[in-house]
Structures are given as structure tokens and as C-alpha cells.
Amino acid sequence: MPAMTWTQSLPPGHLGIQGEPDDLSEVNQLVHAAEIAIEGSSTSTEDALRTNFGEPGFDPGRDIVSVRSDDGTLVALVTYHNREPHVSSWSIGWVHPDHVGRGIGGALIDWAEARAESDIGMAPSGTRVTMSMGANERNERGKRLLARRGFSVERYFLEMAIDLDGVIDVAALPEGIALRTIRPDEDVVDLSAAVSHAFRDHFGYTESPPEARIGRWRQWRTSEMWDDDLVWLAEDESNIVGVNVCLRENGAKHDQGYVASLGVLPEWRGRGLARCLLTTSFAEYQRLGKRSVSLHVDADSITGATRLYTGVGMHDVETHIDFEREIRPGKDIVVR
Fold it and tell me: Measured between alpha carbons, how far is residue 219 from residues 57, 172, 200, 222, 268 in Å?
């Protein structure tokens, strides 16, 4: 599809615009309205949007398009993401609930598909190339639209949470392991390497240049949600063998903590380290006055993470579906 012909799919009285809107609060209000309409609540903040839009490799001028009604109101927006090695792009879109059912979502998919197809040449020769979009399990209209457009269900992800209204039983560290938080003057190079190692056998993982991963972690460290005292590193004599990166709050849910990235290196799994890292964060959040903690997890995680989370008292809150469409067949270098 030629670039920008997606605008021809928009309903009358709507204008498609490429590039990041000038007013980030306007984007945040749109995301809030779209999420509340489906889930009943929203975690979006201007800080989170700013952090995501500032990620290395993401170009807001090219990787965002929005839709405005004839009175100038922002009614929809979609972002496009395609990290090295460029074999699995994904897009995230929002349509204001007052404008759902008019064909705007389909137009946004048109644009995302055109971007993904135009980037095929960036992927290594002979590799399978896919594009993904997601939908909350409650979003029946969104699920039907993606199915009609040739997307199929690839994976389910769960949001799980726990209320912090009881005594937290902090699990013991495995023998030979020390636990500390990241130092304010410590770079994220070792953290990035440990996270990559811990998730190398997880669904969706692809190898990317270390400098790209490090750049993303450095960007996230600039977020208002980042707190060095909530980033735990588990070490043996010389290496990081487990991490738990937590954020001050779950976005706009100020009374809820958020576990952003909990991982243990394969050789240290099954020894109770993940339980220790997780319950340590629960106890700290409780000390800070948070009422609950949430996280997201692959429903079919190879590590049995959902069993761990259920075992410490967490429960399912939401289900999110990853829809995928193949745009070039070939050798699949993404972990499945």
C-alpha cells in the first residue's frame, strides 16, 4: 500500500496527521478514555508516554500518526515499533470511545501494515517477518477487526495483582547469593546484560545489539517512575544472576506498585530466587504505603511464572491478547 493512503480510509470529517502531537496531555487524555472504556481504569501518564516516545530507535516524526475530527479534537493515535533485527514489528493504537465503529481503527491498521511492509528489507535475508497488534480480551470489536484483517491469536498475557493488606512472608535468599539495589552512580550495562540473559529463552525474544538494549534502559532510568531503590540485583560471587526492576507506581494508579521486569538466569531457576526477589519488592511497597502490586506475565511462560505468582497470592486482573500476521515467510528467529 502506498504511504499515507490510509487517510483515504478515514470517515468524512476526520484528518490523518503524521508525527507526534504537540500536546502530550492531549494524548494522555485520549489513552485514558480508550482504556477506561474497555478496562474500567487506566494507568497512562504523560511521563510514561514521554519515556516511550523518547526510546532510542523510535522516531516520533515517522512512527506516530493521529486522527483529528473536524473540530480539531484528537480522536485516535497509533505508534509503530520495529527494533533490530527488524523481524517482528508491533503497533499500539487507541480510538476514543465516542469515535469507535466509524472505520478509524481499520485506517490505523492500514497505516501500520504499510509501515511494516516498507521495512521488510531491513530484516535479515531469508527470515520470517511478522507484525503484531494487541487487544484486551474484553475488546470484542477490536478482536473481530484484527481477525478480519488476517491477524491470528499468537499469545495471551495476564495482568496479575496482589493486595498488600496482610503480613508479607519474604522468602529467603538461596545460599551463596547476595541481594542489593542498584547504586545511583552505577550504569545499567550489567543490568541490561542480565535481563537479556534471563529472558533469552522467553517467548518473543530476539537478539539485538547490546548498545540498543542499554540505550533503552538508560532512557527508562530518566522516567519519573524509576527509583534506584526499587531495582534489585541478586549476585553470586561475581555476576548478576537475578533482577527485579520495579517502578514507584503503576502509572496513574498511585497506590499500586508495579513489577516491570523480574528475571532469573536459567542456571539459578528453581532455587527460590524469583520468590525472594518478588516478595522483597512486596514488603518494600507495603513499607512505602502502597495498597497493591501488579505485573504482566506471559500466560504460558516456560519458567512457570504464573504458578509462582499464584503461589504468593497474586490473582488475574486482565487478559491481553497478542495478535500476529505474517508479512514474509522464512526462517523464524523469534523465540516461540
Answer: 11, 32, 21, 5, 29
